[in-house]
Amino acid sequence: MFFNSTAFAIFLPIVFFLYWFVFNKSKSTQNALLIVASYYFYSCWDWRFLFLLVFSTFLDYFTGIQIEKSDSDKKRKFWFWLSILVNLGFLGIFKYYNFFASSFAEMFNSFGFKVSPFLLNVILPVGISFYTFHGLSYVIDIYYKRIKAEYNFIDYSLFVSYFPLLVAGPIERATHLLPQVKIKREFNLEKAKEGFLQIIWGLFKKVVIADNCAVYANNIFDHYTSMDSVSLIMGTVYFAFQIYGDFSGYSDIALGVSKLFGIDLLKNFNYPYFSRDIAEFWRRWHISLSSWFRDYVYIPLGGSKGSKTIQVRNVFIIFLLSGFWHGANWTYIAWGAINAFYFLPLLLIKTNRNNIEEKAISFNFSSLKMICNILFTFGITCVAWIFFRSENIHMAFEYIKRITFFSFDLDGLKEQISYIIIIILPYLILLEWNNRKKECPLFDRYSGIKTITTLIFILLFGQFDIQSKFIYFQF
Amino acid sequence: MKFFLKYIIGIVAMTYIVSFGIQYLADYGFRNLKNTQYNDWDNIVNGRINSDIIINGSSRGFVGYNSQIIEENLKGDCFNISFNAGCYKLQQYKFDTYLKRNKKPKIVIQNIDIAHFGENKELPEVSQFYPLVYNEDINSLVGKYENKFNLFKIIPLLKYNQSFKMLEEGIVANFSNSTKKNATTLKGYCPQDRPFRIDYHNLKKIPETKTKSLNKREIDLLHKMIYFYFSRLDKDSKLIFVWMPENKMRLNKSYDLKRETIVEELCLMQKKYKNFIFIDMAYDDISNHDQYYYDTFHLNETGANLFSKKVSAKINEQLN
User: Fold this and answer.
1) Which chain A residues touch B159 with a CB distance below 8 Å?
2) Full-model pTM
3) Residue B174: which domain range?
4) What ipTM did this prediction achieve?
5) What is the CATH number of the domain that holds B199?
């Protein structure tokens, strides 16, 4: 059941109605309803993987309690590592086994040993990377005594399987979500309104921006060998907007849906393409994953403290892990590595925290410099996206090589642009730029006009004939 | 909660009002833009045609029969209701729609060819119906092929989804009378000012056959086609089937075998039915000249004008 499907358009109002009118007696009834709804939502993809979700939930629930109850360090470590290894084991088997098996086989083959790897014929359970990371953060926080273990299984299950974030995040923290599910939610008009608007904006980003850009991006990437340089550059720009619209659109819908149930989720995107340097980009893009790696990998490794060598190592570790998290493919690892290379100079010359504050645009040199920085950051991000979108490393390099030919074909270019794109992209950019201090561009001033215009754009430009998946479901 | 529901209803209602407003403007513009197929449909469903001579057919009829020339030669008001409809059922449906609000014609000219006998799985050129989505007659026609038309009635602007250019054209039509080249209609006829280009995709569609035979279904169909008109027209009305000239590139052996059997059957029917006339012009001299076609299947404006003169002379011959 996709957020942009008719099934979800029926499912959501039913759950909303039951939640606020039938199961609103207590927090337990509210949570019970949300769990049933979440399991139903998840089973719409593949009910068999529901067992994996329940098992993962039970494992972390149980080990969390055991860690807290254990009186010796040895026992605490045992339960901690049991949870970590089983969680990562599942992720490893389903997501990475085939990649490692075939990569090792290739390596042996290149040395002259004939090896045919045993590959698993399994499909990746949807959302496994997301709910595994929920569980891991919970167990790690208990182990380091940042939080108490949750003894109410219903509450804990809801933390793991809450349907708005179940399949593509944001990756929640127990410290943020659990306290909210432990109290009865009262209806809050302002929050519900915000949720409604955020759903509309998310839907716009998905069905209008992402799905329209996808038509052109797919065409260019699928036929890159016959495209001129300008078309190839446009292909990367289209993909940049496609992936942004797709993933941040999903996150907006998730946050909006959750607000309808009175629960706030972590903000996942903060207008990343307005970043003035790559460090700022990573503070604004997929925030829940970046902060997860920062808190559970980067800082425990020493972060930006210690020698330059340690700093460089830590930066590479988190960026490579971040790339690898997206999928078992060298292209994602390369994408992570490129971002590490982008980030490293800023860290080494200590300018990575230069652009924290928002600045207004005016007619002066500093604003011009800011715009140039934004365009430069967007440009280098697009180069990295080539690796993310390509089927393999060779294709990515070939794609870049063809850009450097500086060829130009006016007729070809005309095919890569349409009046729809000319209308929707400036609308997105203008609205987001003018409202970049708000969580959602449709909030506050002129909200009604902005919302109605956006709804009209969805009706006019939305892609409804294709049942397109969200890109991040595969992760 | 009450306020929240009111808020949602308010937003949805406002969106509806604005969207319906925009949609109405575009629909109205299209329906009233003279010399377009939208305006022709509007005139048909509102009973504003009432011609003595009606031409029916598919795209070949649409671009090949100049109603004004035929009207001058046959001395009767003539209108071409052919459309890019493909097969016979849709053409018959259009004729029925025409009869609902317009007077019965005295002469019906039906263009036929091999493609005529097929069945439409999809509605061709569906956008021609968009401005008339709320018309019951149009809806019952389109609803058979496109489920989404029911959605179009309740969700504004959805029919113009991904067709922004069309929406824009419709709105502009309220303030301008200009029509597009090769989409302008003159009494239903749509002249094509285009040079000849070989349409290989259409050539491939010619059915392969080795024997000269019609199957039972096709013979039944021929009878039903004739019965369809006679059951609807007045007793003394004339029904004329015309096989318009095909480009020489289409006239191969396989094509002939299939065509001949249809022609033979139609000739038999001509003897059987008093008011039925069959005019076979497939091999007319027009076939030999590419300059009369814009592809191997369709006449261009020059070809259509010449053919219309020729066919009306032949009809005159038969009628007198």
Assistant:
1) none
2) 0.86
3) 2-319
4) 0.81
5) 3.40.50.1110
